[in-house]
Amino acid sequence: xxxxxxxxxxxxxxxxxxxxxxxxVPVAIVGxxxxxxxxxxxxGPNLEQVxxxxxxxxxxxxxxxxxxxxxxxxxxxxPQLTMQIDRVRAASLGLSATDLATALxxxxxxxxxxxxxxxxxxxxxxxxxxxxKEGSLSTPxxxxxxxxxxxxxxxxRLDSVASFKQTLGAALIGRxxxxxxxxxxxxxxxxxGDAIQLVRDSAQEILPPGYRLNxxxxxxxxxxxxxxxxxxxxxxxxxxxxxxASQFNSFLQPLIIMxxxxxxxxxxxxxxxxxGNSLNIFSMIGLVLLIGLVAKNSILLIDLxxxxxxxxxxxxxxxxEACPIRLRPVLMTSLTIILALLPAALGLGAGAExxxxxxxxxxxxxxxxxxxxxxxxxxxxxLVMNARLxxxxxxxx
Length: 397
What we know:
Layout: H1 3-14, E1 38-44, H2 47-62, E2 70-72, E3 78-85, H3 87-92, H4 97-108, E4 111-118, E5 124-130, E6 147-149, E7 155-157, E8 162-169, E9 174-176, E10 179-186, H5 192-206, E11 212-216, H6 218-248, H7 253-257, H8 260-274, H9 281-293, H10 295-310, H11 315-345, H12 352-396
Antiparallel strand pairs: 1-10, 1-11, 2-10, 3-8, 4-5, 6-7, 9-10
Helix pairs in contact: 2-5, 6-9, 8-9, 8-12, 9-12, 10-11, 10-12, 11-12
């Protein structure tokens, strides 16, 4: 059973438990961090206001189809006990606030008082923890059973120097950029880009001045990747053109060879849509890889055509002879890449959740570029080179 299948089965079982809000998620790539695709937080100067805005955002996103369950880590309604110390009476008995806090911590939570070295056995060190017996402290009134020893040696009941008040407090208080933060987590079934836009629209409706929405995790990386993707594509195309121009000693033929790039991008995006994958960080990396991978088909074809033209053959004759010869190496190299990435595209092996979109984008681009390159590139080469020859002949005449 794959990780995704196990998560789906656990989600169905956990949804049947009344009063439980459970969020089964994949194992995080980075240890100690959560792994939901959509992670965001709302920050501001007031803790109560941040919590209220977080709950409003959670409700708005949770009511949206395709967003899935939304988890909020900031909860200010956790029942707790507040200890109020009678400092005058405690001081008269020789007890400090530290003594009371230590005793309460020892009984309720426990304190490590020593360690045990099991050298003859497995050589491990075990902490010895001192705390109250399990079940002895189950209600707030049980805290009255705790006794402390005063300076005179007498036993003093804890409730004689302190009182307890039931209140509501925060389970944890998160911070981001030195401000209070309410973090929300979700695994939307919709594309991550659409979910991010929906979050931005919702935040624009509810966030007052002084409060801000921050994207973290994969959502933040997707925003950075989207902004830098055009630069990466442009730089890759420029470097490819420079290499091809120096290899073929021409400024025109590299443009013919690079006709395979848009054909590959179209095939990669279509394959992602056909398989139900989104244009995420990994699939974008696959589209960048296609820029270099698909150029080799055109290079094989154009290079042999140029060699045959140097032997005195016309453009159409050289193409008619070069295309059948280069058909087999073009298909072999393309099939090598496709078959190598096929296991990851089918979801086999470790890391298939991240490698799958990348592999599908590359496979789709290789299929479309291979099929169309054998038609589009020879046709474009014939039109451009014949037009250039006619222009040169006309100028010479």
